[in-house]
């Protein structure tokens, strides 16, 4: 699937598939009389949905959609999302952000080894005046090129330390 071509129907299919998988896992835990694991899975799923719901406060709908569908677009990574968002007015074209961040992630995907496991942590923070998205990729990235900063409307920064690449995008 092309990373920038996930339509509404495709997203709904992925969401339904993921939801059914989670329900089946919970049912399996119940059938095996593993109530603690079933309860933990329910709490984890609830927390994941709470984090996704919090994205609405970002008030950048294209970016919200990109973040919500990240695990389906970039399925080479095990993904976690955490949000701390206060609603505010944003003065940036979020479609421009999505185009840029897709380019960044396509560069990262070219630097991964398909035989290795990679963890991506997406951290979204926003106050009423500013926003920030941090993408942390844990795993060896071979031949990763530096990301060019090509926009005056937001700020990007990247660092690499040991086997963790961190990319931060921020703006108003």
Write the layout of secondary structure elements.
Elements: H1 8-31, H2 35-54, H3 61-73, E1 78-85, H4 94-110, E2 119-126, E3 131-138, E4 155-161, E5 164-171
Parallel strand pairs: 1-2
Antiparallel strand pairs: 2-3, 3-5, 4-5
Helix pairs in contact: 1-2, 3-4
Helix content: 40-55%
Count of DSSP E strands? Answer: 5
- Low-pLDDT runs of 5+ residues are none
Q: What is the general shape?
A: globular
Sketch the topology as an H/E string, one letter per element.
Answer: HHHEHEEEE
Taking the alpha carbons of the first and last residues, their distance comes to 32 Å
Oligomeric status = single chain
Q: Order of strands in the sheet with the most strands?
A: 1-2-3-5-4
Please count the helical segments. 4
Q: What integer is the average pLDDT?
A: 89
Question: What about the largest sheet?
Answer: 5 strands, mixed
Structural class: alpha+beta
**Residues in β-strands, percent:** 15-25%
Radius of gyration: 17 Å
Report on the structure:
This protein is α+β, with helices and mostly antiparallel strands. Helix content is 43%, strand content 23%. The protein has four helices and five strands. The protein has helices at residues 8-31, 35-54, 61-73, 94-110; strands at residues 78-85, 119-126, 131-138, 155-161, 164-171. A five-stranded mixed sheet has the order 1-2-3-5-4. A hairpin with a 4-residue loop joins strand 2 (119-126) and strand 3. The longest helix has 24 residues, at 8-31. The protein is globular. The two termini are 32 Å apart. The mean pLDDT is 89.
Features:
5 strands; globular; single chain; 172 residues; 4 helices; alpha+beta; 5-stranded mixed sheet
């Amino acid at each position: 699937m092309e990373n920038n071509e996930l339509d509404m129907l495709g997203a709904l299919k992925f969401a339904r598939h993921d939801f059914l998988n989670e329900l089946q896992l919970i049912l399996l835990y119940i059938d095996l009389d593993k109530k603690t694991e079933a309860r933990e899975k329910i709490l984890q799923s609830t927390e994941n949905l709470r984090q996704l719901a919090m994205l609405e406060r970002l008030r950048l709908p294209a970016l919200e959609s990109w973040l919500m569908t990240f695990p389906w677009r970039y399925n080479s990574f095990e993904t976690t999302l955490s949000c701390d968002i206060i609603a505010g007015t944003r003065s940036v074209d979020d479609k421009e952000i999505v185009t840029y961040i897709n380019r960044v992630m396509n560069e990262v995907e070219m630097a991964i080894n398909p035989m290795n496991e990679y963890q991506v942590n997406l951290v979204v923070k926003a106050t009423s005046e500013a926003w920030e998205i941090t993408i942390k990729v844990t795993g060896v990235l071979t031949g990763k090129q530096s990301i060019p900063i090509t926009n005056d409307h937001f700020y990007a920064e990247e660092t690499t330390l040991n086997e963790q690449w961190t990319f931060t995008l921020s703006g108003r």
